[in-house]
Amino acid sequence: MSLNLIELEMQDGRLTNFGEFAGKTVLVVNVASKCGLTPQYEALEALYKKYADRGLVIVGVPSDTFKQEFKDDASIAEFCSLNYGVTFPLTKLAKVNGRNRHPLFKELVKAKDGMGLAGPVMWNFEKFLVSPNGKIQRFRPNMKPDDPAIVAAIEASLGN
C-alpha cells in the first residue's frame, strides 16, 4: 500500500491521509505520555520549530501499545500542550504493533534501522523519517530526536 493513501485521524478531529504531507520530510514518532523517554517531546518540538519552515513535519502517534499512554485523546493533547508546548500534529490514539496495528505502522516497520533490523516497534519514541521521495529511515527509541545522525538525515532530506 502507498503511504500517501493511508488514512490518519488527527487529534484536531480531521480525517486526512499521509498524502497531505507529499513533498515534505515527515518524522513519524510513536509517542507516550508516561514513559521514561517522554522528555523527548522537548527535542521533537525544537526540531519542528527549527525545520518546519523548510518542510519538516513531525507527526506524533500516541500509542498505548506499551501501556504508558493515557486512554483518551483529550488527556493526551492536554498533557502534550501543558508539559511540552507541543505544536506539531498528533494523531488519535493508535496501536503500533500487533494484529490491530495502524496501517501506517504496517508499512513503516518494514524499514530497517542502522543495524539492518526491521520488524515490530521496539518501544515508545521509535522514529521513522520519510523523505519526499518515500525513502524511510528508522531510528530506535533511545536515539534522541536531536542526535546528530537524525539531524543529518533530516537536513539531507530537506536539501538546501
From TrEMBL:
GO biological process, alphabetically ordered: cellular response to oxidative stress
Keywords: Oxidoreductase, Peroxidase
Family to which the UniProt record says this protein belongs: Belongs to the glutathione peroxidase family.
PROSITE patterns: GLUTATHIONE_PEROXID_1, GLUTATHIONE_PEROXID_3
Coiled-coil residue windows: none
Domain of life: Bacteria
Protein name per UniProt: Glutathione peroxidase
UniProt GO MF annotations: peroxidase activity
Source organism (scientific name): Candidatus Rhodoluna planktonica
